[in-house]
């Protein structure tokens, strides 16, 4: 049985620059089944591929936090908005070409609703 103590990885769905920076910071991991903890998204990446990676990362028992570039989260916004599990924690992050927009962040919207803002 998996507990939160088994969750030791960051997973990332992002553009090439974001992924490169995070890999240089040491977050990259490939498990014994050759599954990576990151997906590089470019203009040719299909929405279905992004959806599949999101589902995979949110169902894994070794991922503590899933980082996703906000502009990529927008491509699968209904799926992101439906995600409510505490683990892995979902964080939308900016990218070099797309600044962070708090009005689009599903987690921030939920927090604001909880605190009555």
Automatic annotation (TrEMBL):
Record keywords, A-Z: Hydrogen ion transport, Ion transport, Membrane, Transport, Vacuole
Localisation per UniProt entry: Vacuole membrane
Membrane topology of the entry: Peripheral membrane protein
Keyword presence, Nucleotidyltransferase: no
Domain of life: Eukaryota
InterPro entries registered for this protein in UniProt: ATPase_V1-cplx_f_g_su (IPR008218), ATPase_V1-cplx_fsu_euk (IPR005772), ATPase_V1_fsu_sf (IPR036906)
Gene3D superfamilies per UniProt: ATPase, V1 complex, subunit F
Cited NCBIfam families: V_ATP_synt_F (TIGR01101)
Family: Belongs to the V-ATPase F subunit family.
Function field: Subunit of the V1 complex of vacuolar(H+)-ATPase (V-ATPase), a multisubunit enzyme composed of a peripheral complex (V1) that hydrolyzes ATP and a membrane integral complex (V0) that translocates protons. V-ATPase is responsible for acidifying and maintaining the pH of intracellular compartments.
Protein known as: V-type proton ATPase subunit F
Organism: Mycena chlorophos (Agaric fungus)
């Amino acid at each position: 049985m998996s507990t939160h103590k088994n969750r030791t990885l960051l997973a990332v769905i992002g553009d090439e620059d974001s992924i490169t920076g995070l890999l240089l910071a040491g977050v990259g991991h490939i498990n014994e089944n050759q599954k990576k903890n990151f997906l590089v998204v470019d203009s040719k990446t299909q929405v279905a591929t992004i959806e599949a990676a999101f589902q995979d990362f949110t169902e894994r028992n070794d991922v503590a936090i899933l980082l996703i570039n906000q502009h990529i989260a927008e491509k699968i916004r209904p799926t992101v908005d439906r995600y409510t599990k505490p683990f892995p924690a979902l964080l939308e992050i900016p990218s070099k070409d797309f600044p962070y927009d708090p009005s689009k962040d599903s987690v921030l919207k939920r927090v604001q609703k909880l605190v009555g803002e």
